[in-house]
UniProtKB/TrEMBL annotation:
Residues 2-156 form the Thioredoxin domain. The lineage of its organism: Bacteria, Thermotogati, Thermotogota, Thermotogae, Kosmotogales. It comes from Kosmotoga pacifica. This is Alkyl hydroperoxide reductase. GO terms for molecular function: antioxidant activity; oxidoreductase activity. It comes from the Bacteria. InterPro entries: AhpC/TSA (IPR000866), Peroxiredoxin_AhpC-typ (IPR024706), Thioredoxin-like_sf (IPR036249), Thioredoxin_domain (IPR013766), Tpx_Peroxidase_subfamily (IPR050455).
């Protein structure tokens, strides 16, 4: 699992429009990676809507927010549209990026053999270094949104 001080590993995932998005295309910007277990779940909806509601503040700091889950691009698209999310939602259907960054829940929600991204948040500075990392083993726990924003703000 990657953590504070590590170089953010580049990746390429599909967005909701089936376009490939690479982390490296945001080099020179601050990036907030938000891993969430599953679209259309109550805690994930609350979490991503909290980031949605703060997106203007992140943009003022020249920061990009990227949501990542193991859901398909099609599910992420419906979730994005229903919740009017303006930032990219990326599909890690192979679970490789989730494993590298924050890990995965095994047998998620009691479904044997199904895994999902652990709820985690990473702040990456313009040079590609992780300056803040948070992950939880409890899928019902939300990140400290004010702390995430403060960590981005420190990079100014």
């Amino acid at each position: 699992m990657l953590s504070t001080g590590d170089i953010a590993v580049d990746f390429e995932l599909f967005n909701t429009e089936l376009e490939k998005v690479k982390l490296s295309q945001f080099k020179g910007k601050k990036v907030v990676l938000v891993f969430y277990p599953g679209a259309f779940t109550s805690v994930c909806q609350k979490e991503l809507c909290a980031f949605r509601d703060s997106i203007t503040n992140f943009e003022k700091l020249d920061a990009v927010v990227l949501g990542i889950s193991v859901d398909s691009p099609f599910v992420n698209k419906a979730f994005k549209e229903q919740n009017m999310i303006s930032f990219e939602l990326l599909s890690d259907y192979g679970r490789e990026v989730s494993r590298m960054y924050g890990g995965v829940y095994k047998d998620f929600a009691g479904m044997e053999g199904y895994s999902a991204s652990k709820r985690s948040v990473f702040v990456i500075n313009p040079e590609g270094i992780i300056t803040y990392s948070w992950a939880t083993d409890n899928p019902g726990e939300e990140p400290d949104y004010e702390r995430v924003f403060a960590e981005v703000e420190k990079l100014n």
